[in-house]
Amino acid sequence: MANLDFEEFVSLKFLLSIEGIGTARVQKLLQKFNSFHEILSADARALYSANCISENTASRISAAVSSQKKSYYKKVETELKNLENIGAGYLTFFDEAYPEMLKNIYDPPLIIYIKGKFMPEDRYSVAIVGTRNPTEYGKKQAQRFAGGLAEQRITIVSGLASGIDSVAHKVALERRGRSIAVMGTGLDMTYPAINHSLCSEIAEHGAVITEYEWGIMPEAQNFPRRNRIISGLSLGVLVVQSAVKGGSLITAKDALEQNREIFAVPGNLGDDYSEGTNALIRDNKAKLVTSPEEIISELNLKMQPVEFKKTPNPEIQLNLFEEKIVECLSSEPCHIDKISSLTSLSTSECLVYLLSLEFKGLVRQFPGKMFSID
Fold first, then answer.
1. Contact at 8 Å (CB) between 101 and 232?
2. d(CA 206, CA 160)
3. Are 164 and 134 in contact (CB under 8 A)?
4. Same topology between domain 6-75 and domain 320-373
5. How many CA atoms lie less than 13 Å away from 13 in the CB half-sphere?
6. What is the reported pLDDT for 303?
7. Per-residue confidence at 3, pLDDT binned at 50, 70, 90?
8. How open is the CA angle 195-249-104, to the nearest 5 degrees?
9. Where are the domains of the chain?
């Protein structure tokens, strides 16, 4: 399925608005039916017969279509008009401009509301997160790392919160870099309000995105959930300062599950806002870093002012899965589905390891998800 037209977009939104329907069930239904319109046109029996949802869920979909779908069109039209008025729009999982790395995480958002735009260079992104109440040491480290990475044309991703997030966004923009802010509200609500100007600046030189529709307020449960998007957009996550139960550790956990690199800035023992970062390092969940160059080296990134370049590495270390992929590749481009079949790895796993191999200078990617030995 390619870019969704308005009818299909409304049908997707409507389907997601029904209780019990999330990303996994939508994708399963789409495997059985040809379009979202076809899903909503099916009766409860046909939906249940598809063997991917329960009888109760099938009945809920059918009942919702009968009673609410007609009025839902007007609701979506109003929402899109509101987005247009602030210079924003939306992307769906099925659109070509949807970020490839985010597409391959568990539970990717099927709809993203966006002010600004994604660029090809955003593929080389690092998330910087941390406490809302940093010490002067924390602020200084966030500035140093965000500045050093932005100068190498690495996009800085964060959550627009007060503290470390805000510092990272601001410094990236000051160094004429790009930044992406992932919000836990609708695009009509900047939270915290003090970051309204920063939010506008990020949209001009990057993107402000959210999975939450127009009118959604800053509810507590939204922020931990949006963290999977922060890590999902990034090659790695740097935690600057965090308490043991800080929200930044949720982002680190998401990054770990997404097979992303995790980095942490060490802090003083006894400092509450260093306990979380020090624990990540102690438990071997994060690599201790003392400079932006160490992150660049670890990710095997080296960037010129405009063009991306890979750093040569004469002693390249491969893990077991990377070795399996390299063994099945040749100089002739091979499609991702065939690589998945040859290695007995899922497509999403293959994409993660292929990206790693590409950074190591061993693999070249071609259009249409084709790969070869470089």
1. yes
2. 13
3. yes
4. no
5. 29
6. 47
7. low
8. 85
9. 6-75, 101-302, 320-373
Tokens at 59, concatenated: 């009945």
pLDDT digits (tens, 9 = 90+) for 243-284: 998 889 999 999 999 999 999 999 998 888 899 999 999 999
Q: What is the spatial distance between Cα 99 and Cα 208, in angstroms, rounded to a whole number? A: 14
CA dist 268 and 273 (Å) reads 9
Which residues contact residue 268 at a Cβ distance below 8 angstroms, ignoring those fewer than 6 apart?
137, 274
- Hey, which CATH number is domain 320-373, 1.10.3720.10, 3.10.20.30, 1.10.10.10, 3.40.630.30? 1.10.10.10
Q: CB of 357 within 8 A of CB of 349?
A: no
**What mean pLDDT is reported for the chain?**
89
CATH topology of domain 6-75: DNA polymerase; domain 1 (1.10.150)
State the Rg of the chain over Cα.
Answer: 22
What is the C-alpha separation between 50 and 55, in angstroms, rounded?
A: 10
Topology given in CATH for the domain delimited by 101-302: Rossmann fold (3.40.50)
Name the percent of the chain lying above pLDDT 90: 62
- pTM of the full predicted structure? 0.78
The SS3 of residue 328 is helix
Q: What sign does the dihedral 220-226-231-237 (CA atoms) show?
A: negative
